[in-house]
Amino acid sequence: MNRLAHHQGIHKFFMTLGLALYFSKPVIKHLVYLVDALTTKGFSGTLTDVRYWSFHPNHRTTLSHFFTKSPWNEEKLLEKLQEWILRQIERLAKQENQPLFVSIDDTICQKTKPSSRAAHAIQGCDWHYSHKDHQSVWGHSLVWLMVHTFTQAFPFAFRLYDKAAGRSKIDLAIERLSSLKGKWAQPVYVLMDSWYPSQALIEACLKQGFHVIAMLKTNRILYPKGIAIQAKEFARYIEPQDTRFVTVGKERYRVYRYEGAIRGLDDAVVLLAWKADEPMTPDHLHVVLSTDRELGDEEILRYDAQRWTIECFFRQAKDQLKSDDTVFATFGR
Asked: A biological process (GO) annotation for this entry (predicted)?
Protein backbone atom coordinates (compact mmCIF):
# COMPACT_ATOMS: atom_id res chain seq x y z
CA MET A 1 0.00 0.00 0.00
CA ASN A 2 1.35 3.42 -0.99
CA ARG A 3 0.86 5.96 1.80
CA LEU A 4 2.97 8.68 0.17
CA ALA A 5 0.08 10.86 -1.02
CA HIS A 6 -1.63 10.61 2.39
CA HIS A 7 1.60 11.55 4.19
CA GLN A 8 2.14 14.47 1.83
CA GLY A 9 -1.31 15.85 2.62
CA ILE A 10 -0.69 15.68 6.38
CA HIS A 11 2.76 17.23 5.96
CA LYS A 12 1.30 20.06 3.86
CA PHE A 13 -1.22 20.83 6.62
CA PHE A 14 1.58 20.94 9.22
CA MET A 15 3.43 23.42 7.00
CA THR A 16 0.23 25.52 6.81
CA LEU A 17 0.31 25.67 10.62
CA GLY A 18 3.89 26.91 10.46
CA LEU A 19 5.31 23.99 12.45
CA ALA A 20 8.61 24.06 10.53
CA LEU A 21 9.55 27.12 12.61
CA TYR A 22 9.16 25.22 15.89
CA PHE A 23 9.83 21.51 15.25
CA SER A 24 12.67 19.62 13.65
CA LYS A 25 12.18 17.48 10.54
CA PRO A 26 12.37 14.20 12.54
CA VAL A 27 9.67 15.43 14.95
CA ILE A 28 7.37 16.46 12.10
CA LYS A 29 8.01 13.10 10.44
CA HIS A 30 6.89 11.26 13.61
CA LEU A 31 3.77 13.46 13.84
CA VAL A 32 2.86 12.71 10.21
CA TYR A 33 3.03 8.96 10.86
CA LEU A 34 1.09 9.39 14.11
CA VAL A 35 -1.81 11.26 12.48
CA ASP A 36 -1.85 8.72 9.65
CA ALA A 37 -2.19 5.84 12.11
CA LEU A 38 -4.83 7.57 14.26
CA THR A 39 -7.07 8.14 11.26
CA THR A 40 -6.71 4.65 9.77
CA LYS A 41 -9.50 2.12 10.19
CA GLY A 42 -8.28 -0.72 12.40
CA PHE A 43 -6.20 1.43 14.77
CA SER A 44 -6.74 0.32 18.38
CA GLY A 45 -4.53 2.73 20.30
CA THR A 46 -1.10 1.16 20.78
CA LEU A 47 2.38 2.14 19.63
CA THR A 48 2.55 -1.14 17.77
CA ASP A 49 -0.54 -0.02 15.85
CA VAL A 50 1.05 3.35 15.05
CA ARG A 51 3.99 1.58 13.43
CA TYR A 52 1.84 -1.04 11.67
CA TRP A 53 -0.95 1.13 10.27
CA SER A 54 1.24 4.05 9.19
CA PHE A 55 4.04 1.85 7.77
CA HIS A 56 6.53 3.63 10.01
CA PRO A 57 10.07 2.66 8.95
CA ASN A 58 11.49 2.68 12.50
CA HIS A 59 11.14 0.21 15.36
CA ARG A 60 8.35 0.65 17.92
CA THR A 61 10.90 1.60 20.60
CA THR A 62 11.80 4.67 18.53
CA LEU A 63 8.22 5.87 18.91
CA SER A 64 8.31 5.20 22.65
CA HIS A 65 11.47 7.28 22.93
CA PHE A 66 9.83 10.06 20.90
CA PHE A 67 6.89 10.33 23.33
CA THR A 68 8.91 10.09 26.52
CA LYS A 69 12.20 11.85 25.77
CA SER A 70 12.08 13.75 22.49
CA PRO A 71 12.29 17.58 22.96
CA TRP A 72 9.05 18.64 21.26
CA ASN A 73 6.53 21.04 22.74
CA GLU A 74 2.98 19.72 22.53
CA GLU A 75 1.62 23.04 23.87
CA LYS A 76 3.13 24.87 20.89
CA LEU A 77 1.55 22.33 18.53
CA LEU A 78 -1.83 22.88 20.20
CA GLU A 79 -1.38 26.68 20.08
CA LYS A 80 -0.71 26.70 16.33
CA LEU A 81 -3.61 24.32 15.70
CA GLN A 82 -5.95 26.50 17.78
CA GLU A 83 -4.94 29.62 15.85
CA TRP A 84 -5.83 27.84 12.60
CA ILE A 85 -9.14 26.57 14.02
CA LEU A 86 -10.20 30.04 15.18
CA ARG A 87 -9.47 31.52 11.75
CA GLN A 88 -11.51 28.77 10.09
CA ILE A 89 -14.46 28.93 12.46
CA GLU A 90 -14.69 32.73 12.36
CA ARG A 91 -14.63 32.66 8.54
CA LEU A 92 -17.42 30.06 8.53
CA ALA A 93 -19.56 32.01 11.00
CA LYS A 94 -19.24 35.20 8.91
CA GLN A 95 -19.91 33.32 5.67
CA GLU A 96 -23.05 31.68 7.08
CA ASN A 97 -24.07 34.80 9.06
CA GLN A 98 -24.65 32.50 12.02
CA PRO A 99 -23.51 32.55 15.67
CA LEU A 100 -20.42 30.76 16.86
CA PHE A 101 -20.86 28.06 19.52
CA VAL A 102 -18.46 26.86 22.22
CA SER A 103 -19.51 23.60 23.86
CA ILE A 104 -18.08 22.60 27.25
CA ASP A 105 -18.37 19.03 28.52
CA ASP A 106 -16.34 16.19 29.97
CA THR A 107 -15.96 12.54 29.11
CA ILE A 108 -14.35 9.49 30.67
CA CYS A 109 -11.77 7.44 28.78
CA GLN A 110 -12.40 4.17 30.60
CA LYS A 111 -9.49 1.86 31.37
CA THR A 112 -9.13 -1.61 32.83
CA LYS A 113 -8.69 -1.41 36.60
CA PRO A 114 -5.14 -2.61 37.40
CA SER A 115 -4.50 -5.48 39.76
CA SER A 116 -3.67 -4.54 43.37
CA ARG A 117 -0.31 -6.19 42.71
CA ALA A 118 0.44 -4.06 39.66
CA ALA A 119 3.73 -2.22 40.04
CA HIS A 120 2.60 0.83 38.08
CA ALA A 121 -0.99 2.00 37.59
CA ILE A 122 -1.79 4.11 34.53
CA GLN A 123 -0.78 7.69 35.30
CA GLY A 124 -3.67 10.08 35.92
CA CYS A 125 -6.34 7.39 36.27
CA ASP A 126 -8.93 7.51 39.05
CA TRP A 127 -12.53 6.60 39.83
CA HIS A 128 -15.00 8.95 38.11
CA TYR A 129 -18.78 8.85 38.12
CA SER A 130 -20.18 7.94 34.71
CA HIS A 131 -23.65 9.36 34.02
CA LYS A 132 -24.00 6.92 31.13
CA ASP A 133 -23.24 3.87 33.29
CA HIS A 134 -24.79 5.32 36.49
CA GLN A 135 -21.75 4.23 38.49
CA SER A 136 -18.10 5.07 39.08
CA VAL A 137 -15.65 3.75 36.48
CA TRP A 138 -11.86 3.67 36.33
CA GLY A 139 -10.16 5.89 33.77
CA HIS A 140 -9.14 9.38 32.68
CA SER A 141 -11.66 12.21 32.91
CA LEU A 142 -11.12 14.90 30.27
CA VAL A 143 -12.71 18.37 30.16
CA TRP A 144 -13.20 19.46 26.54
CA LEU A 145 -13.99 22.64 24.65
CA MET A 146 -15.33 22.42 21.11
CA VAL A 147 -15.94 25.37 18.76
CA HIS A 148 -18.54 25.02 16.02
CA THR A 149 -21.18 26.54 13.81
CA PHE A 150 -24.38 24.84 12.69
CA THR A 151 -22.46 23.09 9.92
CA GLN A 152 -18.88 22.47 11.05
CA ALA A 153 -17.15 21.62 14.34
CA PHE A 154 -13.58 21.53 15.64
CA PRO A 155 -12.34 19.99 18.92
CA PHE A 156 -10.45 22.93 20.41
CA ALA A 157 -8.90 22.24 23.82
CA PHE A 158 -8.91 19.73 26.64
CA ARG A 159 -7.42 19.14 30.07
CA LEU A 160 -7.06 16.02 32.16
CA TYR A 161 -9.11 16.29 35.35
CA ASP A 162 -6.93 15.18 38.27
CA LYS A 163 -8.69 14.98 41.63
CA ALA A 164 -5.37 15.07 43.48
CA ALA A 165 -4.47 18.43 41.91
CA GLY A 166 -7.31 20.14 43.79
CA ARG A 167 -8.76 21.88 40.73
CA SER A 168 -12.39 21.37 39.79
CA LYS A 169 -13.78 20.75 36.32
CA ILE A 170 -15.21 24.28 36.50
CA ASP A 171 -11.67 25.63 37.07
CA LEU A 172 -10.38 23.67 34.06
CA ALA A 173 -13.23 24.90 31.88
CA ILE A 174 -12.53 28.54 32.83
CA GLU A 175 -8.82 28.02 32.09
CA ARG A 176 -9.54 26.53 28.66
CA LEU A 177 -12.08 29.25 27.91
CA SER A 178 -9.38 31.88 28.35
CA SER A 179 -7.58 30.45 25.30
CA LEU A 180 -10.44 31.73 23.09
CA LYS A 181 -8.85 35.11 22.50
CA GLY A 182 -9.82 37.70 19.96
CA LYS A 183 -12.65 39.96 18.88
CA TRP A 184 -15.58 38.20 17.32
CA ALA A 185 -17.73 39.68 14.57
CA GLN A 186 -20.47 37.14 15.25
CA PRO A 187 -22.16 36.50 18.64
CA VAL A 188 -20.65 33.65 20.67
CA TYR A 189 -22.77 31.28 22.77
CA VAL A 190 -21.19 28.94 25.31
CA LEU A 191 -23.25 25.75 25.61
CA MET A 192 -23.11 23.42 28.60
CA ASP A 193 -25.15 20.81 30.42
CA SER A 194 -26.58 21.17 33.92
CA TRP A 195 -23.30 20.24 35.70
CA TYR A 196 -21.40 23.33 34.52
CA PRO A 197 -23.37 26.63 34.78
CA SER A 198 -21.88 27.81 38.08
CA GLN A 199 -21.75 31.50 38.89
CA ALA A 200 -17.96 31.54 38.37
CA LEU A 201 -18.12 29.97 34.90
CA ILE A 202 -21.05 32.13 33.77
CA GLU A 203 -19.19 35.27 34.91
CA ALA A 204 -16.05 34.12 33.07
CA CYS A 205 -18.09 33.75 29.86
CA LEU A 206 -19.78 37.14 30.22
CA LYS A 207 -16.43 38.80 30.96
CA GLN A 208 -15.16 37.59 27.57
CA GLY A 209 -18.28 38.91 25.85
CA PHE A 210 -19.85 35.47 25.41
CA HIS A 211 -23.46 34.56 26.18
CA VAL A 212 -24.37 31.33 27.95
CA ILE A 213 -27.07 28.83 27.01
CA ALA A 214 -27.19 25.93 29.43
CA MET A 215 -29.37 23.27 30.93
CA LEU A 216 -30.12 23.92 34.60
CA LYS A 217 -30.88 21.42 37.33
CA THR A 218 -34.54 21.53 38.30
CA ASN A 219 -33.62 22.58 41.85
CA ARG A 220 -32.00 25.84 40.63
CA ILE A 221 -33.43 28.80 42.53
CA LEU A 222 -35.57 31.32 40.64
CA TYR A 223 -36.96 34.58 42.07
CA PRO A 224 -40.42 35.23 40.57
CA LYS A 225 -41.73 38.45 42.16
CA GLY A 226 -38.70 38.37 44.46
CA ILE A 227 -39.64 35.03 46.07
CA ALA A 228 -36.96 32.31 46.11
CA ILE A 229 -38.28 29.01 44.77
CA GLN A 230 -36.82 25.95 43.04
CA ALA A 231 -37.61 25.70 39.33
CA LYS A 232 -39.40 22.36 39.78
CA GLU A 233 -41.59 23.82 42.54
CA PHE A 234 -42.35 26.94 40.51
CA ALA A 235 -43.34 24.68 37.60
CA ARG A 236 -46.17 23.21 39.68
CA TYR A 237 -48.00 26.55 39.43
CA ILE A 238 -47.77 26.66 35.62
CA GLU A 239 -50.93 25.67 33.74
CA PRO A 240 -51.03 24.47 30.11
CA GLN A 241 -52.68 27.75 29.08
CA ASP A 242 -49.63 29.61 30.47
CA THR A 243 -47.36 27.90 27.94
CA ARG A 244 -46.87 28.15 24.19
CA PHE A 245 -45.94 25.46 21.69
CA VAL A 246 -42.44 25.63 20.19
CA THR A 247 -41.14 23.28 17.49
CA VAL A 248 -37.41 22.52 17.25
CA GLY A 249 -36.47 20.03 14.55
CA LYS A 250 -38.83 17.10 14.95
CA GLU A 251 -39.64 17.84 18.61
CA ARG A 252 -42.54 19.94 19.87
CA TYR A 253 -42.45 21.51 23.34
CA ARG A 254 -44.73 23.34 25.74
CA VAL A 255 -42.67 26.31 26.93
CA TYR A 256 -43.06 28.82 29.76
CA ARG A 257 -40.70 31.81 29.60
CA TYR A 258 -39.39 33.26 32.89
CA GLU A 259 -37.38 36.50 32.83
CA GLY A 260 -35.62 37.73 35.94
CA ALA A 261 -33.06 36.71 38.52
CA ILE A 262 -31.78 33.23 39.28
CA ARG A 263 -29.28 32.22 41.92
CA GLY A 264 -25.90 33.57 40.81
CA LEU A 265 -27.31 35.81 38.05
CA ASP A 266 -29.35 38.99 38.33
CA ASP A 267 -30.95 39.02 34.90
CA ALA A 268 -31.60 36.09 32.57
CA VAL A 269 -34.16 34.10 30.60
CA VAL A 270 -35.14 30.65 31.84
CA LEU A 271 -37.35 28.38 29.76
CA LEU A 272 -39.36 25.73 31.57
CA ALA A 273 -40.19 23.20 28.88
CA TRP A 274 -41.95 19.87 28.49
CA LYS A 275 -42.20 17.70 25.39
CA ALA A 276 -45.70 18.19 23.99
CA ASP A 277 -46.59 14.49 24.27
CA GLU A 278 -45.48 14.21 27.93
CA PRO A 279 -47.26 15.33 31.12
CA MET A 280 -46.28 18.65 32.70
CA THR A 281 -44.71 17.04 35.78
CA PRO A 282 -41.35 17.76 37.47
CA ASP A 283 -40.01 14.42 36.17
CA HIS A 284 -40.41 15.57 32.57
CA LEU A 285 -39.32 19.17 33.11
CA HIS A 286 -36.41 20.68 31.15
CA VAL A 287 -34.93 23.96 32.40
CA VAL A 288 -32.86 26.00 29.94
CA LEU A 289 -30.93 29.19 30.75
CA SER A 290 -30.06 31.98 28.31
CA THR A 291 -28.11 35.09 29.32
CA ASP A 292 -29.17 36.66 26.00
CA ARG A 293 -32.63 38.09 26.65
CA GLU A 294 -33.04 39.11 23.01
CA LEU A 295 -33.34 35.50 21.83
CA GLY A 296 -36.76 34.00 21.22
CA ASP A 297 -37.83 30.69 22.76
CA GLU A 298 -37.31 28.73 19.54
CA GLU A 299 -33.81 30.16 19.06
CA ILE A 300 -32.80 29.31 22.63
CA LEU A 301 -33.93 25.69 22.28
CA ARG A 302 -32.42 25.39 18.80
CA TYR A 303 -29.07 26.72 20.00
CA ASP A 304 -29.16 24.48 23.08
CA ALA A 305 -29.66 21.45 20.82
CA GLN A 306 -26.22 22.15 19.32
CA ARG A 307 -24.68 20.75 22.54
CA TRP A 308 -25.07 17.29 20.99
CA THR A 309 -22.23 18.13 18.61
CA ILE A 310 -19.69 17.51 21.36
CA GLU A 311 -21.44 14.29 22.43
CA CYS A 312 -21.15 13.03 18.85
CA PHE A 313 -17.45 13.89 18.91
CA PHE A 314 -16.92 11.91 22.13
CA ARG A 315 -18.59 8.88 20.53
CA GLN A 316 -16.50 9.17 17.36
CA ALA A 317 -13.28 9.63 19.35
CA LYS A 318 -13.96 6.44 21.28
CA ASP A 319 -15.16 4.41 18.31
CA GLN A 320 -12.71 5.61 15.66
CA LEU A 321 -9.72 7.13 17.47
CA LYS A 322 -9.89 4.60 20.33
CA SER A 323 -9.56 7.28 23.01
CA ASP A 324 -10.59 4.74 25.66
CA ASP A 325 -7.58 2.59 24.83
CA THR A 326 -5.02 4.87 23.26
CA VAL A 327 -1.70 5.71 24.86
CA PHE A 328 -2.28 9.37 23.89
CA ALA A 329 -5.20 9.95 26.32
CA THR A 330 -2.87 11.54 28.86
CA PHE A 331 -1.85 14.35 26.50
CA GLY A 332 -2.99 17.79 27.62
CA ARG A 333 -2.02 17.42 31.25
From this structure: DNA transposition
DSSP codes joined into one string, 273-302: EEETTS-SSGGG-EEEEES-TTS-HHHHHH
**Residues in CB range of 144: below 8 A, 6 or more apart:** 103, 104, 105, 106, 107, 155, 156, 157, 158, 310, 313, 314
pLDDT confidence of residue 247: 96
The H or E element that residue 138 is part of is strand 135-148
List beta partners, residue 142. 107, 160
Instruction: Quickly name the fold that domain 77-315 has.
Output: Transposase Inhibitor Protein From Tn5; Chain A, domain 1 (3.90.350)
How far apart CA 150 and CA 154 sit, in angstroms, is 12
Least Cα distance to 153 among 317, 321, 329 occurs for: 317
Measured CA to CA, the distance from residue 54 to residue 60 in angstroms comes to: 12
Spatial separation of the C-alpha atoms in residues 267 and 283, rounded to whole Å: 26
Report yes or no: 90 and 143 within 8 Å, Cβ to Cβ.
no
Q: What angle do CA 309, 313, 316 make, to 5 degrees?
A: 140
Ranges of each domain in the chain: 4-72, 77-315
Per-block mean pLDDT, blocks of 10 residues, the chain (333 long):
74 92 88 82 73 74 78 86 92 92 90 58 76 80 93 91 88 91 87 94 95 97 95 96 95 97 94 96 96 97 94 80 51 42
pTM of the model: 0.86
Cα–Cα–Cα angle for 97, 90, 36, rounded to 5 degrees:
125
pLDDT at residue 3, as a whole number: 66
Helix (H) or strand (E) holding 189: strand 188-192
